[in-house]
Structure formats: C-alpha cells, structure tokens
Amino acid sequence: AGIAVFPSIVKILPQHVFNQKDPIIVGVEVVEGILKVGTPLCVPALGGLTVGVVTSIECNGREQETAKKGSSVAIKIVNETNPTITYGRQFDASHSLYSQLSRASIDALKLHFKDKLENEDWRLVVKLKKVFGII
Questions:
Q1: 48 in the Ramachandran plot: left (φ > 0), alpha (ψ -120 to 50) or beta?
Q2: Which residue in 72, 78, 93 sits closest to 24, CA to CA?
C-alpha cells in the first residue's frame, strides 16, 4: 500500500530550518491531517512544485512514523529527481506544503485505510482534490 498518501498540510517554522537542501530538514507544524513518513510534499501555490518525500519525522529527538494535526515536528525531505531544490530559493516558510494526492492514492486510502482516517481527514481529502483538480 505504498501508493496510499495520507492528506496533510504543513507549515514550515522559519526559526527551525536546519538544512536548506539535499536533504531539506525543517521544523513544521501539522496544520491539517496526518503527516506520514513516505509522504510526497508539494507547493500548490507555486504551480505544484514538488519539494520531495518525507523520509523521517522526529519529535523531541525521537523518530516517529506519523505526526497528527497540531503537532510540531522536524522532518527530513529528500528529492531524488531534483536534489538542487532549496528552501529559501524555490520555496520558503510563506508557502504551505501539501501532501501530493492523486486519484490512485485516494483510492488506495479508501481501500486500505478507511478506518484510520477521521471525518476531518476525509474532508481534507475533498479539499485537496479541489486543489489538485482530481475528479
């Protein structure tokens, strides 16, 4: 079920930028949804700029698989196809990062993780479908 992408919107905490590129390591607040390791992140405000994939999530020095709405965590983002993407150059803390959803990832969520998402999370899926123009 590697195709399933959980919906999330995260806000970068500008005072917690630890590494600007390759890998990008930043502190974020999960504004909505559930952020998971393996989530592809993009910036819809910049034409869907792909920032990369979350390869780790850390809270108080401890690694974890997920971060829920309201939590502040440090995340490592790796972009293998575009390692030159740089925080502060192509995007910055004024841009929210969104889980990059697709029709296939939403179908996989419905199939494998229906019970793992609250109503609020499904509402976010609907919101993100509009953002990404997914029918």
A1: left
A2: 78
In 3D space, the residue among 64, 70, 73, 74 whose CA is nearest the CA of residue 120 turns out to be 70
The residues near 61 (Cβ < 8 Å, ≥ 6 apart) are none
Tens digits of residue pLDDT in 119-133: 999 999 999 999 999
Over residues 66-111, the pLDDT tens digits come to: 999 999 999 999 999 999 999 999 999 999 999 999 999 999 999 9
Compute the distance between CA of residue 91 and CA of residue 86 in angstroms, rounded to an integer: 7
Give residues with Cβ within 8 angstroms of 71, minimum separation 6. Answer: 29, 30, 59
Asked whether the beta carbons of 25 and 76 are under 8 A apart, the reply is yes
